Amino acid sequence: MAVPEQEPSAPQFSERIQKYRREIEALVKQGGEQPQYEFKRTVFVDREHLDDRLDFIKFIQAVANAEISTERCIVIGADPKEKKFYPLSNADDFDRAKLSAIISAYLYPTPQFESFSLETDAKEVFVILVLNHDQPRPIVVVKEGRTENGKNRLDLGDVWIKKDTGTIRATRDQLDLIYRERMEVETEDRARKRFKHFLDENLIQPSSAPLVSPILPNAELLVGPRQDLANYFAQLIANDDLTRFVMLVELARETLVEGWDAVEGPQEAFYAPNPIGFLNKLNDFYKNRFSPVLDSVVECGILGIKNSVRTDWIINIVDLFVETFNTCGDFKNRLGGSNRTGNVAFYAWRPAFDCFLAVRAMAIYTVLRSRLPYLETILPKLVKVVSSDLYSETYKTAVVLWPFINLPIGTELRNGRAQFFWKDRISGSWGRHFHSASKFLDASCQFEFLLEFNSFLGTNSQQDPKFGTWLQQYLGSGVRFHYLPDLYSQDLHATVPMAERIYDLLSAGSDFPSYLVFDPKIVNQAFSGLDKSKRLEIYGDFLYGLKSWQSTYLWEGFQRMGFMWDWEGRLKQIADPAAQRAKLRRRGGV
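The chain above was modelled as a monomer; its predicted structure follows.
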């Protein structure tokens, strides 16, 4: 008798915790930092240690309120800087039920966590608190906490958040972002419940009325309520009305490209009697005309991808963004150098940066929704790099790479560009299409993997002399595909679907689809005449090199340990030999 096939079981719970235990032991032994782990030598939460209790409650609130895409772990009883574990006499105090009761008296909602008392191989006891990445943020102080000396450690309404290595009160912008994400999720949930209710009550009936031909597009659609634009665009899609859509795009172009000419005036405007008025005029146009129109065009692009419109619809949008980027990218020259007078500034690089984020949002959405053929309209597009000063070298690169030099963004990229993109613009403008920050970040990782693979080939990172000569002649000196991938802030687990897709193509020996590459000629030339084993050997070098680069970059740039993660399955089978080849080369072997 045949036994029904069973689904493979999920990893055992104990396996997950044992993985954490091994990683923690390795981190403590080797020293260094790792962003997923927070270490405490000792913590007391009993009534006799009120100061420690309040400090720890504030700390766990800050960690839970931080924007993270993976679980976060608080380790008690160890210090990687000292490379040792410390005796822990109060492990029982961190029982989940006991600790949750203490925390819930001060914080609401209560942070979601698990608690485990573990031992090292040397029988050293430590505690690990595992915080779920999906916390009910914002977590707020609901009970005042005073130390034994009467000093307020927790104030009603406080929202503490972990940022880099410090604990700070959440700023207005950070709170706005937290609430916006929460409202988007709740709105989507309510909409699904209403729709289900209508179905259950048979209140939704198929309409027999013919579709009404939409009116001519107007500028108000691009700056008015987003729902009006969505309804109008839905009519265009339903009627397959490309003509009216092109008219709508042309209306957007009048603002995004041509609108600046009317605002800027002559280059001498900076030296006019009222330069502050001129800068205010630029800022007003950027805020009240350029930004809402840009948002609306991206909305159409994402809705078009969502509803599988013909490719020529998306081409019109991407071409507009490329033209807009190149127009805005020249501001530093067109505005005569300095763009600040007193306390008033117009950041000349910002409109081009917003345009870059617009293209990125569309590209990442295609990955999220598995609409990859639309990438053919985006990946090959080249733009001239934008610099924040007048003296940087200029060249062309793919618009989806990093077409900027010396942008004054500061330390905001420490947690990864994708997290910065999400917080800076994408969550507030188009975040509802991605549903959550974690889904956006996962799709972004896949896209980053694809970009880095193209850069790997486009810069001849495999050091093939023959291919390098051909590439130099083909690209010339005006085009570069050098890239620093945004794959250092979390492990490479989210890249695996894209990595597997590329493995399949190389294994089969098929031509790469044009929608996965900057230029099909480069990829075909790189693998021309190579058998399967050689193609996979090159790919194995790429996989090993990416993981090795991540560890080195984390340590040299942030003094953090690399992630305890490795390729698995067939990807590991080609990455491990690549590691051995690299080891031999370092030793001077063949």
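Residues 1-12, 201-213 have pLDDT under 50 and may be disordered.
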